[in-house]
Protein backbone atom coordinates (compact mmCIF):
# COMPACT_ATOMS: atom_id res chain seq x y z
CA UNK A 1 0.00 0.00 0.00
CA UNK A 2 2.69 2.55 0.98
CA UNK A 3 4.86 1.33 -1.88
CA UNK A 4 2.03 2.02 -4.30
CA UNK A 5 1.71 5.55 -2.89
CA UNK A 6 5.44 6.08 -3.54
CA UNK A 7 5.10 4.81 -7.11
CA UNK A 8 2.32 7.34 -7.72
CA UNK A 9 4.01 10.20 -5.81
CA UNK A 10 0.73 10.41 -3.91
CA UNK A 11 -0.18 13.43 -1.82
CA UNK A 12 -0.06 13.15 1.97
CA UNK A 13 -0.48 15.38 4.99
CA UNK A 14 1.81 15.46 8.02
CA UNK A 15 0.30 16.58 11.32
CA UNK A 16 2.06 17.07 14.62
CA UNK A 17 0.52 14.56 16.99
CA UNK A 18 -2.25 16.05 19.18
CA UNK A 19 -2.17 19.22 17.07
CA UNK A 20 -4.03 20.68 14.09
CA UNK A 21 -0.82 22.07 12.63
CA UNK A 22 0.11 20.32 9.41
CA UNK A 23 1.72 20.56 5.99
CA UNK A 24 1.52 18.93 2.55
CA UNK A 25 3.94 16.26 1.31
CA UNK A 26 4.36 13.70 -1.47
CA UNK A 27 5.48 10.09 -1.13
CA UNK A 28 8.95 9.57 -2.59
CA UNK A 29 10.58 6.30 -1.45
CA UNK A 30 10.16 3.42 1.00
CA UNK A 31 12.58 1.01 2.72
CA UNK A 32 12.18 -1.80 5.23
CA UNK A 33 12.18 0.65 8.15
CA UNK A 34 11.32 4.11 6.85
CA UNK A 35 9.44 6.17 4.32
CA UNK A 36 10.73 9.31 2.59
CA UNK A 37 8.51 12.21 1.59
CA UNK A 38 9.14 15.40 -0.36
CA UNK A 39 7.70 18.18 1.79
CA UNK A 40 6.70 21.79 1.40
CA UNK A 41 9.18 24.20 3.07
CA UNK A 42 6.17 25.39 5.09
CA UNK A 43 6.60 22.20 7.16
CA UNK A 44 9.45 23.95 8.95
CA UNK A 45 6.94 26.37 10.45
CA UNK A 46 4.85 23.72 12.22
CA UNK A 47 7.74 22.67 14.45
CA UNK A 48 8.74 19.26 13.08
CA UNK A 49 12.13 18.04 14.30
CA UNK A 50 13.89 14.67 14.66
CA UNK A 51 12.00 12.33 17.03
CA UNK A 52 8.78 14.39 16.70
CA UNK A 53 5.71 12.12 16.87
CA UNK A 54 3.40 12.82 13.92
CA UNK A 55 0.36 11.62 12.03
CA UNK A 56 0.62 10.65 8.35
CA UNK A 57 -2.68 11.02 6.42
CA UNK A 58 -3.06 9.87 2.81
CA UNK A 59 -5.41 8.43 0.15
CA UNK A 60 -5.39 4.85 -1.10
CA UNK A 61 -8.05 3.15 -3.22
CA UNK A 62 -10.77 5.71 -2.44
CA UNK A 63 -10.12 5.63 1.30
CA UNK A 64 -8.44 8.17 3.54
CA UNK A 65 -5.98 6.40 5.83
CA UNK A 66 -3.81 7.48 8.74
CA UNK A 67 -0.87 6.11 10.71
CA UNK A 68 1.17 7.41 13.63
CA UNK A 69 4.89 7.73 13.03
CA UNK A 70 8.05 9.54 14.18
CA UNK A 71 10.47 11.83 12.36
CA UNK A 72 13.86 10.25 11.64
CA UNK A 73 15.46 12.94 9.50
CA UNK A 74 14.68 16.39 8.10
CA UNK A 75 16.65 18.08 5.34
CA UNK A 76 15.40 21.52 4.27
CA UNK A 77 18.60 22.13 2.27
CA UNK A 78 17.45 19.75 -0.46
CA UNK A 79 15.08 20.81 -3.23
CA UNK A 80 12.44 19.70 -2.54
CA UNK A 81 12.89 19.44 1.22
CA UNK A 82 13.04 15.85 2.43
CA UNK A 83 11.38 14.21 5.42
CA UNK A 84 12.14 10.66 6.57
CA UNK A 85 9.64 8.94 8.88
CA UNK A 86 9.61 5.60 10.65
CA UNK A 87 7.23 3.22 8.91
CA UNK A 88 3.84 3.58 10.65
CA UNK A 89 3.33 0.65 13.03
CA UNK A 90 -0.30 0.45 11.97
CA UNK A 91 -2.40 2.20 9.30
CA UNK A 92 -6.11 2.67 9.96
CA UNK A 93 -9.10 4.10 8.15
CA UNK A 94 -9.96 7.59 9.39
CA UNK A 95 -13.62 6.56 9.60
CA UNK A 96 -15.39 3.67 11.32
CA UNK A 97 -17.35 3.25 8.07
CA UNK A 98 -15.90 1.07 5.34
CA UNK A 99 -15.80 4.13 3.06
CA UNK A 100 -14.72 7.67 3.76
CA UNK A 101 -17.18 10.42 2.86
CA UNK A 102 -15.40 13.38 1.29
CA UNK A 103 -16.97 16.75 2.12
CA UNK A 104 -17.56 18.66 -1.13
CA UNK A 105 -16.25 22.23 -1.11
CA UNK A 106 -17.94 24.62 -3.55
CA UNK A 107 -14.59 25.81 -4.94
CA UNK A 108 -13.78 22.26 -6.07
CA UNK A 109 -16.34 22.64 -8.87
CA UNK A 110 -18.16 19.30 -8.59
CA UNK A 111 -21.30 19.32 -10.77
CA UNK A 112 -24.11 16.85 -10.01
CA UNK A 113 -27.01 16.11 -12.37
CA UNK A 114 -29.97 13.86 -11.58
CA UNK A 115 -32.38 12.29 -14.05
CA UNK A 116 -35.68 10.63 -13.14
CA UNK A 117 -37.21 7.71 -15.03
CA UNK A 118 -39.81 10.09 -16.54
CA UNK A 119 -37.02 12.19 -18.11
CA UNK A 120 -37.05 15.14 -15.68
CA UNK A 121 -33.58 16.47 -14.76
CA UNK A 122 -32.18 18.56 -11.91
CA UNK A 123 -28.87 20.23 -11.11
CA UNK A 124 -28.26 19.61 -7.41
CA UNK A 125 -25.56 20.36 -4.85
CA UNK A 126 -23.29 17.52 -3.72
CA UNK A 127 -22.60 17.78 0.03
CA UNK A 128 -20.38 14.73 0.47
CA UNK A 129 -19.50 11.75 -1.68
CA UNK A 130 -17.90 8.33 -1.21
CA UNK A 131 -17.36 5.15 -3.18
CA UNK A 132 -20.74 3.96 -1.93
CA UNK A 133 -22.99 6.97 -2.45
CA UNK A 134 -23.60 10.70 -2.28
CA UNK A 135 -25.51 13.17 -0.12
CA UNK A 136 -27.21 15.80 -2.30
CA UNK A 137 -29.41 18.84 -1.73
CA UNK A 138 -32.05 20.37 -4.00
CA UNK A 139 -32.37 24.13 -4.37
CA UNK A 140 -35.09 25.79 -2.30
CA UNK A 141 -38.54 25.07 -3.73
CA UNK A 142 -37.39 22.42 -6.21
CA UNK A 143 -37.50 19.27 -4.01
CA UNK A 144 -39.47 16.58 -5.94
CA UNK A 145 -40.11 14.62 -2.71
CA UNK A 146 -38.78 11.26 -3.91
CA UNK A 147 -39.74 8.27 -1.72
CA UNK A 148 -37.13 5.83 -0.40
CA UNK A 149 -35.98 3.27 -3.02
CA UNK A 150 -36.57 5.66 -5.96
CA UNK A 151 -33.97 5.00 -8.69
CA UNK A 152 -32.31 8.00 -10.36
CA UNK A 153 -29.61 8.49 -12.97
CA UNK A 154 -26.61 10.41 -11.59
CA UNK A 155 -23.87 12.21 -13.50
CA UNK A 156 -20.87 13.65 -11.65
CA UNK A 157 -18.54 16.08 -13.42
CA UNK A 158 -15.25 17.47 -12.12
CA UNK A 159 -13.27 19.34 -14.78
CA UNK A 160 -12.38 16.68 -17.38
CA UNK A 161 -13.59 13.75 -15.24
CA UNK A 162 -17.11 12.32 -15.58
CA UNK A 163 -18.73 9.44 -13.71
CA UNK A 164 -22.24 8.06 -14.07
CA UNK A 165 -24.20 5.84 -11.71
CA UNK A 166 -27.65 4.65 -10.75
CA UNK A 167 -28.64 6.24 -7.45
CA UNK A 168 -31.12 4.63 -5.06
CA UNK A 169 -32.73 6.90 -2.45
CA UNK A 170 -31.85 5.54 0.99
CA UNK A 171 -32.96 8.45 3.19
CA UNK A 172 -34.61 11.83 2.79
CA UNK A 173 -34.57 14.78 5.21
CA UNK A 174 -36.09 17.98 3.87
CA UNK A 175 -34.39 18.82 0.57
CA UNK A 176 -31.43 16.50 1.30
CA UNK A 177 -31.22 12.95 -0.06
CA UNK A 178 -28.78 10.13 0.61
CA UNK A 179 -28.27 8.12 -2.58
CA UNK A 180 -26.60 4.72 -2.88
CA UNK A 181 -24.47 4.04 -5.98
CA UNK A 182 -26.05 0.77 -7.14
CA UNK A 183 -23.16 -0.24 -9.42
CA UNK A 184 -20.60 0.03 -6.60
CA UNK A 185 -22.07 -2.98 -4.80
CA UNK A 186 -20.92 -6.22 -6.39
CA UNK A 187 -21.68 -9.54 -4.65
CA UNK A 188 -21.92 -7.76 -1.33
CA UNK A 189 -18.60 -5.94 -1.73
CA UNK A 190 -17.98 -2.24 -2.38
CA UNK A 191 -16.14 -2.05 -5.72
CA UNK A 192 -16.58 1.39 -7.35
CA UNK A 193 -16.12 1.74 -11.10
CA UNK A 194 -12.84 3.19 -12.37
CA UNK A 195 -14.28 6.55 -13.44
CA UNK A 196 -15.78 7.10 -10.01
CA UNK A 197 -12.54 6.05 -8.30
CA UNK A 198 -10.55 8.64 -10.26
CA UNK A 199 -13.00 11.42 -9.48
CA UNK A 200 -13.04 10.52 -5.77
CA UNK A 201 -9.25 10.48 -5.59
CA UNK A 202 -9.12 14.03 -6.98
CA UNK A 203 -11.76 15.25 -4.52
CA UNK A 204 -10.02 13.60 -1.55
CA UNK A 205 -6.66 15.12 -2.50
CA UNK A 206 -8.14 18.62 -2.77
CA UNK A 207 -10.01 18.22 0.51
CA UNK A 208 -6.83 17.14 2.30
CA UNK A 209 -4.87 20.04 0.84
CA UNK A 210 -7.62 22.48 1.86
CA UNK A 211 -7.38 21.35 5.51
CA UNK A 212 -3.89 22.75 5.95
CA UNK A 213 -4.32 26.06 4.12
Give a structural overview.
With 213 residues, this protein is mainly beta. It folds into two domains: 2-93, Roll (Pnp Oxidase, Chain A), CATH 2.30.110; 102-211, Thrombin, subunit H, CATH 2.40.10. The protein has helices at 2-7, 194-211; strands at residues 11-16, 22-30, 34-39, 53-60, 63-75, 81-86, 91-93, 102-103, 111-115, 121-129, 133-137, 151-158, 161-173, 176-181, 185-186, 189-190. Strand 9 (111-115) and strand 10 form a beta hairpin. The radius of gyration is 20 Å and the shape is elongated. The model is unreliable at 93-98 (pLDDT under 50).
List keywords for this structure.
213 residues, mainly beta, Pnp Oxidase, Chain A, Thrombin, subunit H, 2 domains, six-stranded antiparallel β-barrel, six-stranded antiparallel barrel, 2 helices, 11% helix
The CATH topology of the largest domain, please?
Thrombin, subunit H
Let me know the number of strands. 16
Helical coverage, percent range: 10-25%
The biggest beta sheet reads: 6 strands, antiparallel, barrel
CATH class of the largest domain: Mainly Beta
Write the layout of secondary structure elements.
Layout: H1 2-7, E1 11-16, E2 22-30, E3 34-39, E4 53-60, E5 63-75, E6 81-86, E7 91-93, E8 102-103, E9 111-115, E10 121-129, E11 133-137, E12 151-158, E13 161-173, E14 176-181, E15 185-186, E16 189-190, H2 194-211
Antiparallel strand pairs: 1-2, 1-4, 2-3, 3-6, 4-5, 5-6, 5-7, 8-10, 9-10, 9-12, 10-11, 11-14, 12-13, 13-14, 15-16
